[in-house]
Design a protein that fits this description.
With 301 residues, this protein is mainly alpha-helical. It contains 13 helices and no strands. It has one domain.
Protein backbone atom coordinates (compact mmCIF):
# COMPACT_ATOMS: atom_id res chain seq x y z
CA UNK A 1 0.00 0.00 0.00
CA UNK A 2 1.45 3.36 -1.02
CA UNK A 3 1.45 6.53 1.05
CA UNK A 4 -1.18 7.99 -1.27
CA UNK A 5 -3.67 5.15 -0.76
CA UNK A 6 -3.29 5.51 3.02
CA UNK A 7 -4.48 9.11 2.92
CA UNK A 8 -8.11 9.91 3.88
CA UNK A 9 -10.50 10.03 0.93
CA UNK A 10 -10.95 13.81 1.20
CA UNK A 11 -7.17 14.38 1.14
CA UNK A 12 -6.83 12.20 -1.97
CA UNK A 13 -9.70 14.09 -3.58
CA UNK A 14 -8.03 17.42 -2.85
CA UNK A 15 -4.70 16.24 -4.30
CA UNK A 16 -6.39 14.90 -7.44
CA UNK A 17 -8.23 18.19 -7.89
CA UNK A 18 -5.08 20.26 -7.34
CA UNK A 19 -3.35 18.26 -10.07
CA UNK A 20 -6.39 18.72 -12.29
CA UNK A 21 -6.75 22.50 -11.98
CA UNK A 22 -2.98 22.93 -12.34
CA UNK A 23 -2.95 20.78 -15.49
CA UNK A 24 -5.88 22.74 -16.93
CA UNK A 25 -4.08 26.04 -16.32
CA UNK A 26 -0.82 24.75 -17.80
CA UNK A 27 -2.89 23.57 -20.80
CA UNK A 28 -4.37 27.07 -21.15
CA UNK A 29 -0.86 28.56 -21.00
CA UNK A 30 0.21 26.10 -23.69
CA UNK A 31 -2.79 27.10 -25.82
CA UNK A 32 -1.86 30.78 -25.52
CA UNK A 33 1.75 30.05 -26.55
CA UNK A 34 0.67 27.76 -29.37
CA UNK A 35 -1.83 30.32 -30.67
CA UNK A 36 1.08 32.69 -31.30
CA UNK A 37 2.65 30.15 -33.69
CA UNK A 38 -0.20 28.35 -35.45
CA UNK A 39 -3.86 28.99 -36.26
CA UNK A 40 -6.69 28.67 -33.75
CA UNK A 41 -8.20 25.65 -35.61
CA UNK A 42 -4.83 23.90 -35.24
CA UNK A 43 -4.84 24.57 -31.50
CA UNK A 44 -8.35 23.17 -31.17
CA UNK A 45 -7.54 20.14 -33.34
CA UNK A 46 -4.41 19.40 -31.29
CA UNK A 47 -6.39 19.67 -28.05
CA UNK A 48 -8.97 17.04 -28.99
CA UNK A 49 -7.01 14.82 -31.36
CA UNK A 50 -4.45 14.40 -28.59
CA UNK A 51 -7.18 13.61 -26.08
CA UNK A 52 -8.77 11.07 -28.43
CA UNK A 53 -5.45 9.31 -28.98
CA UNK A 54 -4.69 9.10 -25.24
CA UNK A 55 -8.20 7.82 -24.44
CA UNK A 56 -7.98 5.13 -27.13
CA UNK A 57 -4.62 3.98 -25.76
CA UNK A 58 -5.91 3.89 -22.17
CA UNK A 59 -9.36 2.39 -22.74
CA UNK A 60 -8.71 0.22 -25.81
CA UNK A 61 -9.94 -3.01 -24.13
CA UNK A 62 -13.16 -1.28 -22.99
CA UNK A 63 -13.68 0.99 -25.96
CA UNK A 64 -16.79 -0.66 -27.43
CA UNK A 65 -18.78 -0.78 -24.14
CA UNK A 66 -17.71 2.80 -23.33
CA UNK A 67 -19.15 4.04 -26.63
CA UNK A 68 -22.62 2.64 -25.94
CA UNK A 69 -25.08 5.41 -25.17
CA UNK A 70 -28.83 5.77 -24.82
CA UNK A 71 -28.60 9.53 -25.41
CA UNK A 72 -26.71 10.04 -28.70
CA UNK A 73 -28.30 13.43 -29.42
CA UNK A 74 -27.61 14.73 -25.93
CA UNK A 75 -24.03 13.48 -26.20
CA UNK A 76 -23.80 15.39 -29.49
CA UNK A 77 -25.20 18.53 -27.86
CA UNK A 78 -22.67 18.26 -25.05
CA UNK A 79 -19.87 17.91 -27.58
CA UNK A 80 -21.08 20.99 -29.50
CA UNK A 81 -21.12 23.02 -26.27
CA UNK A 82 -17.69 21.77 -25.32
CA UNK A 83 -16.21 22.71 -28.68
CA UNK A 84 -17.89 26.13 -28.46
CA UNK A 85 -16.52 26.69 -24.97
CA UNK A 86 -12.99 25.70 -25.97
CA UNK A 87 -13.05 27.81 -29.14
CA UNK A 88 -14.23 30.91 -27.23
CA UNK A 89 -11.77 30.27 -24.40
CA UNK A 90 -8.72 29.74 -26.60
CA UNK A 91 -9.68 32.68 -28.83
CA UNK A 92 -9.93 34.90 -25.75
CA UNK A 93 -6.44 33.82 -24.67
CA UNK A 94 -5.03 35.36 -27.85
CA UNK A 95 -6.33 38.81 -26.87
CA UNK A 96 -6.56 38.86 -23.07
CA UNK A 97 -4.42 37.90 -20.09
CA UNK A 98 -4.48 34.33 -18.76
CA UNK A 99 -5.78 35.34 -15.31
CA UNK A 100 -8.40 37.65 -16.83
CA UNK A 101 -9.86 34.90 -19.03
CA UNK A 102 -9.89 32.28 -16.26
CA UNK A 103 -11.42 34.72 -13.76
CA UNK A 104 -14.41 35.36 -16.04
CA UNK A 105 -14.72 31.63 -16.79
CA UNK A 106 -15.09 31.09 -13.02
CA UNK A 107 -18.68 32.29 -13.53
CA UNK A 108 -19.70 28.89 -14.92
CA UNK A 109 -20.83 27.32 -11.59
CA UNK A 110 -23.08 30.31 -10.93
CA UNK A 111 -24.48 30.19 -14.46
CA UNK A 112 -25.24 26.51 -13.84
CA UNK A 113 -27.26 27.52 -10.78
CA UNK A 114 -29.10 30.16 -12.81
CA UNK A 115 -29.73 27.77 -15.69
CA UNK A 116 -31.01 25.07 -13.35
CA UNK A 117 -33.64 27.50 -12.10
CA UNK A 118 -34.65 28.64 -15.59
CA UNK A 119 -34.61 25.34 -17.50
CA UNK A 120 -34.67 22.50 -14.95
CA UNK A 121 -37.12 24.29 -12.64
CA UNK A 122 -34.90 23.87 -9.61
CA UNK A 123 -35.55 26.26 -6.76
CA UNK A 124 -33.00 29.01 -6.27
CA UNK A 125 -33.60 31.15 -3.20
CA UNK A 126 -33.03 34.86 -2.82
CA UNK A 127 -29.59 34.46 -1.27
CA UNK A 128 -28.26 32.20 -3.99
CA UNK A 129 -29.84 34.50 -6.57
CA UNK A 130 -27.96 37.45 -5.08
CA UNK A 131 -24.74 35.39 -5.14
CA UNK A 132 -25.21 34.79 -8.87
CA UNK A 133 -25.97 38.49 -9.44
CA UNK A 134 -22.80 39.58 -7.62
CA UNK A 135 -20.79 37.09 -9.69
CA UNK A 136 -22.08 38.73 -12.85
CA UNK A 137 -21.16 42.12 -11.41
CA UNK A 138 -17.63 40.78 -10.87
CA UNK A 139 -17.47 39.83 -14.55
CA UNK A 140 -18.64 43.31 -15.55
CA UNK A 141 -15.89 44.83 -13.40
CA UNK A 142 -13.31 42.85 -15.40
CA UNK A 143 -14.93 43.39 -18.80
CA UNK A 144 -15.71 47.09 -18.14
CA UNK A 145 -18.22 47.69 -20.96
CA UNK A 146 -18.17 51.27 -22.18
CA UNK A 147 -14.57 51.87 -21.10
CA UNK A 148 -11.55 52.39 -23.33
CA UNK A 149 -10.19 48.92 -22.50
CA UNK A 150 -13.37 47.09 -23.56
CA UNK A 151 -13.21 45.01 -26.74
CA UNK A 152 -15.49 42.36 -28.18
CA UNK A 153 -12.82 39.81 -27.19
CA UNK A 154 -13.71 40.60 -23.57
CA UNK A 155 -17.04 38.81 -24.13
CA UNK A 156 -15.42 35.57 -25.29
CA UNK A 157 -14.71 34.17 -21.79
CA UNK A 158 -18.32 34.94 -20.84
CA UNK A 159 -19.47 33.01 -23.91
CA UNK A 160 -17.19 30.14 -22.89
CA UNK A 161 -18.67 30.12 -19.37
CA UNK A 162 -22.17 30.05 -20.86
CA UNK A 163 -21.27 27.05 -23.04
CA UNK A 164 -19.79 25.26 -20.02
CA UNK A 165 -22.98 25.92 -18.07
CA UNK A 166 -25.13 24.54 -20.91
CA UNK A 167 -22.88 21.47 -21.08
CA UNK A 168 -23.34 21.00 -17.33
CA UNK A 169 -27.11 21.30 -17.50
CA UNK A 170 -27.29 18.65 -20.24
CA UNK A 171 -25.02 16.45 -18.12
CA UNK A 172 -27.31 16.93 -15.13
CA UNK A 173 -30.31 16.03 -17.30
CA UNK A 174 -28.66 12.73 -18.27
CA UNK A 175 -27.70 12.15 -14.65
CA UNK A 176 -25.64 9.13 -13.62
CA UNK A 177 -26.99 6.81 -16.32
CA UNK A 178 -23.78 6.91 -18.34
CA UNK A 179 -20.11 6.92 -17.48
CA UNK A 180 -18.04 10.12 -17.65
CA UNK A 181 -15.67 8.16 -19.90
CA UNK A 182 -18.49 7.85 -22.44
CA UNK A 183 -18.85 11.64 -22.47
CA UNK A 184 -15.09 12.09 -22.78
CA UNK A 185 -14.92 9.74 -25.75
CA UNK A 186 -17.89 11.24 -27.58
CA UNK A 187 -16.62 14.76 -26.99
CA UNK A 188 -13.15 13.86 -28.26
CA UNK A 189 -14.59 12.03 -31.30
CA UNK A 190 -16.93 14.87 -32.26
CA UNK A 191 -14.47 17.72 -31.70
CA UNK A 192 -11.65 15.90 -33.50
CA UNK A 193 -13.92 15.05 -36.45
CA UNK A 194 -15.18 18.62 -36.84
CA UNK A 195 -11.74 20.18 -36.52
CA UNK A 196 -10.19 17.60 -38.88
CA UNK A 197 -12.51 18.94 -41.59
CA UNK A 198 -11.69 22.58 -40.82
CA UNK A 199 -7.98 22.49 -39.97
CA UNK A 200 -6.59 21.70 -43.49
CA UNK A 201 -7.84 25.12 -44.67
CA UNK A 202 -6.00 26.89 -41.83
CA UNK A 203 -2.89 24.75 -41.48
CA UNK A 204 0.31 26.54 -40.57
CA UNK A 205 3.45 24.42 -40.73
CA UNK A 206 4.58 24.15 -37.10
CA UNK A 207 8.19 24.62 -36.07
CA UNK A 208 9.79 22.25 -33.54
CA UNK A 209 8.49 24.19 -30.52
CA UNK A 210 4.96 24.42 -31.92
CA UNK A 211 4.96 20.68 -32.69
CA UNK A 212 5.95 19.96 -29.10
CA UNK A 213 3.21 22.23 -27.79
CA UNK A 214 0.68 20.51 -30.07
CA UNK A 215 1.62 17.16 -28.55
CA UNK A 216 1.53 18.53 -25.00
CA UNK A 217 -1.86 20.25 -25.12
CA UNK A 218 -3.89 17.09 -25.70
CA UNK A 219 -2.01 15.16 -23.01
CA UNK A 220 -2.46 17.97 -20.49
CA UNK A 221 -6.19 18.23 -21.17
CA UNK A 222 -6.68 14.49 -20.79
CA UNK A 223 -4.65 14.39 -17.58
CA UNK A 224 -6.69 17.28 -16.18
CA UNK A 225 -10.03 15.65 -16.97
CA UNK A 226 -9.10 12.16 -15.76
CA UNK A 227 -7.74 13.46 -12.44
CA UNK A 228 -10.89 15.57 -12.01
CA UNK A 229 -13.00 12.43 -12.50
CA UNK A 230 -10.88 10.66 -9.88
CA UNK A 231 -11.21 13.60 -7.48
CA UNK A 232 -15.00 13.53 -7.55
CA UNK A 233 -15.14 9.72 -7.45
CA UNK A 234 -13.13 9.34 -4.21
CA UNK A 235 -14.91 12.02 -2.20
CA UNK A 236 -18.01 14.22 -2.22
CA UNK A 237 -18.06 17.25 -4.49
CA UNK A 238 -19.28 19.42 -1.62
CA UNK A 239 -16.05 18.74 0.28
CA UNK A 240 -13.57 19.73 -2.43
CA UNK A 241 -15.38 22.01 -4.92
CA UNK A 242 -13.79 25.27 -3.62
CA UNK A 243 -10.33 23.87 -4.49
CA UNK A 244 -11.14 24.49 -8.16
CA UNK A 245 -10.55 28.22 -7.62
CA UNK A 246 -6.87 27.43 -6.97
CA UNK A 247 -6.49 27.54 -10.75
CA UNK A 248 -6.87 31.32 -10.69
CA UNK A 249 -3.77 31.64 -8.48
CA UNK A 250 -1.86 29.30 -10.80
CA UNK A 251 -2.99 31.44 -13.74
CA UNK A 252 -1.64 34.62 -12.12
CA UNK A 253 1.70 32.91 -11.42
CA UNK A 254 2.03 31.44 -14.92
CA UNK A 255 0.85 34.65 -16.57
CA UNK A 256 3.68 36.51 -14.86
CA UNK A 257 6.35 33.78 -15.25
CA UNK A 258 5.66 33.01 -18.93
CA UNK A 259 4.23 36.24 -20.36
CA UNK A 260 5.39 38.86 -17.86
CA UNK A 261 1.78 39.94 -17.26
CA UNK A 262 0.13 40.74 -13.97
CA UNK A 263 -3.63 41.37 -13.75
CA UNK A 264 -4.61 45.00 -13.22
CA UNK A 265 -6.52 46.12 -10.12
CA UNK A 266 -9.90 45.83 -11.86
CA UNK A 267 -9.23 42.22 -12.84
CA UNK A 268 -8.12 41.45 -9.27
CA UNK A 269 -11.22 43.13 -7.83
CA UNK A 270 -13.58 41.46 -10.30
CA UNK A 271 -11.90 38.09 -9.78
CA UNK A 272 -12.26 38.38 -6.00
CA UNK A 273 -15.95 39.26 -6.38
CA UNK A 274 -16.53 36.27 -8.68
CA UNK A 275 -14.69 33.81 -6.44
CA UNK A 276 -16.38 35.15 -3.28
CA UNK A 277 -19.78 34.90 -4.99
CA UNK A 278 -19.05 31.36 -6.21
CA UNK A 279 -18.01 30.28 -2.71
CA UNK A 280 -21.16 31.83 -1.26
CA UNK A 281 -23.39 30.06 -3.79
CA UNK A 282 -21.52 26.80 -3.06
CA UNK A 283 -22.04 27.35 0.69
CA UNK A 284 -25.78 27.95 0.25
CA UNK A 285 -26.17 24.89 -2.00
CA UNK A 286 -24.14 22.76 0.39
CA UNK A 287 -26.48 23.74 3.23
CA UNK A 288 -29.43 22.89 1.00
CA UNK A 289 -27.80 19.58 0.01
CA UNK A 290 -27.74 20.44 -3.70
CA UNK A 291 -24.13 21.30 -4.47
CA UNK A 292 -23.58 21.52 -8.23
CA UNK A 293 -20.14 21.82 -9.75
CA UNK A 294 -18.84 21.93 -13.26
CA UNK A 295 -19.30 18.34 -14.47
CA UNK A 296 -16.42 16.15 -13.47
CA UNK A 297 -15.62 15.17 -17.05
CA UNK A 298 -15.45 18.81 -18.05
CA UNK A 299 -13.53 21.22 -15.90
CA UNK A 300 -12.09 24.03 -17.95
CA UNK A 301 -12.35 23.77 -21.73
Amino acid sequence: MTWFSRLPAQSRGILYLLVSVTAFTVMDTTAKLLGERVSLPQVLWSRYAGQLLVLILIFAPRLRPALRTEHPWLQMLRAVMLLGATACFFAALQHLGLAEVIAIAELSPMLITLGAALFLREQVGLRRGLGVAFGLIGALIIIRPGSDVFTTASLLPLAAASCIATYALVTRHIGLKESPITALLYSALFCTSVMSVIVPFHWVRPDALAAGLMLAIGALGTLAQLTMIRAYSVTEASAIAPISHFGLLVAVALGYAVFGNLPDRWTVLGGLVIVASALYVWHRERKAGTVHTVPEEMGQP
